Amino acid sequence: MPRSRINGNFIDKTFSIVANILLGIIPTTSGEKKAFTYYRDEKDPYDRSFILYNIGLIHTSNGEHTKALEYYFRALERNPFLPQAFNNMAVICHYVRLSLL
C-alpha cells in the first residue's frame, strides 16, 4: 500500500476517534449525532473526489505543486469527470515549465 494512502487512513481513523470523543463530551442533539454518523460512514468515491480536489487546491495555493498534483490525481481516480482538476494540473505544469526556462 502506498505511503500516502497509509497516512490518509491514519488521518481518517484519528479524526473519527477524536470526533467520537468530542460527541460524547459536547452536548449535541440527536439530529446532530445522526448527521455525523452519516458523514463518518459515507464512502462515496464521488464525494471523496471533491475532498481530495480541495486538498489539492490548498497545496497549490501554498506553492506545493508536487503534493497538489498527487491529490488531483487521487481525485481523478475516484471521479474522472472533474474538469477543474485537469485544469489545475495543466496550470501547474505550465507554471513549472515557465519557471524552468
UniProtKB/TrEMBL annotation:
InterPro entries: TPR-like_helical_dom_sf, TPR_rpt. The keyword Calcium does not apply. TPR repeats lie at residues 49-82. Pfam families: TPR_1. Keywords: TPR repeat. Transmembrane segments: none annotated. This is Photosystem I assembly protein Ycf3.
